[in-house]
Amino acid sequence: MSRVPIPIILLLLLAPSWAYTDWKFYDSATASRSNRRKIIRKGIAVFSPVVAPWLIDLAKPPLAFAAKSDKDVQTLQQTSIDLKSCTSQADLFFRGLISEETLPDAPMLPAQISLRIFQSLAPLARNVPALNFEAEDFLGVAAEYAEHAGSARDYVKLAKLGRIGENGSEDLAVFYAKKAVEEVKETEKALQVLVQAVQQ
Description:
Layout (H helix, E strand, L loop, with lengths): L5 H15 L12 H27 L3 H26 L1 H9 L16 H7 L16 H24 L8 H29 L2
Helix pairs in contact: 1-2, 3-4, 3-7, 4-7, 6-7
């Protein structure tokens, strides 16, 4: 929810004073300055207990939204770190995919970030000149991330299944593992841009 400008709040707060006087507008020719002040004070006294708290709430920063946004940004940051672990140790990640036994030190592909999170963060996106990125492209880059992340997930599964069945072989597992590494690199590249666009 966006914040309401202070002038609008004051206008809404004072407007009931006019309603209180049957919408009669007073100028210097029909009422003294002191009378106008009395009218305004009387109107505010009647309507402020109901109107003011609502308007003040609108003017406050949307704390719940801010907290949720912070959590979503942290999700992007942590996923980016996990993807970086895969790409910086690409050989170990690759060997973990083609190994018949689990390699405990091999990095794991992190869960894909949902579109809902990117949609919630899109209004917070900023330009990143160093990366030639404009805020309006945030969801477009998020779509690229989703495409590569989905492909990486599929290739990881296929690499694990490449040895199974009568058509399975080590060569097939290696083929899919290589494709998975390629897609993970593209996934990390896209997410790095998105993280920089929303982090403070």
